Amino acid sequence: MPSVRINHAELRVIGVLKGLVKEEEKVSRAFADYAPDAIAISTSKEELAALRTKESHSDYELSNLEEVYKAYMEHFGEVRLPTPAYLKAIELADAAHVPLIPIDLNDEEFTDLYCKRIRGVDMVRESFYTRSIRRRKYRIGSAEEFALDWDMKVNRAKGFRQLERDREEHMALTLRNMASKYERILALVEYERSAGVERFLHSRKDELKDPVAIL
Hints:
The protein has helices at 23-34, 45-52, 64-73, 84-96, 107-117, 120-132, 143-154, 158-178, 191-202; strands at residues 3-6, 9-16, 38-41, 100-102, 184-190. The two termini are 34 Å apart. The chain has one domain. It is an alpha/beta fold. The mean pLDDT is 89. The chain contains nine helices and five strands, in the order ββαβαααβααααβα.
């Protein structure tokens, strides 16, 4: 379990796989072993609010991309959406009265960055990829390998890659801000973004620039 020290605080970053039910066990073990005084999850505040509304879970409709992702990820176990790891985090945090903090861009921030980063050619490429996605081949040696390969192919256009880097930097900055208030932070980050978030956490503070702040 990777750890990062920021002043007096210790952050432990756990990469969780979207949709995979058995990731609940990883979250439960990490929470029990580490006993954090705050949990961070890589969702927006709007997504967290939706996750807390259990009645909406049954209404969740998969996009074409999510349907294909689910079919491949089912090679490694049961898959459900919304992501079970995040639902488990909510359950554990509420039961232990531990703050649960969303660290991803909020909807307005994401929309602004999307408009800044994504060009017309990126949108055309995304549309073409979505139409051909069922004919693509993916690496399925492990769930982690598939998740990274999927992410690389879905975000192969430069604009989308930059948007994901922006998300990673924003999440790292939010975690650094949390470190001024909490001493033991358990960060649950979607697996594909977890290594990038860790890299930004290891950067010097003056090297980080919140992409939202410079729009």
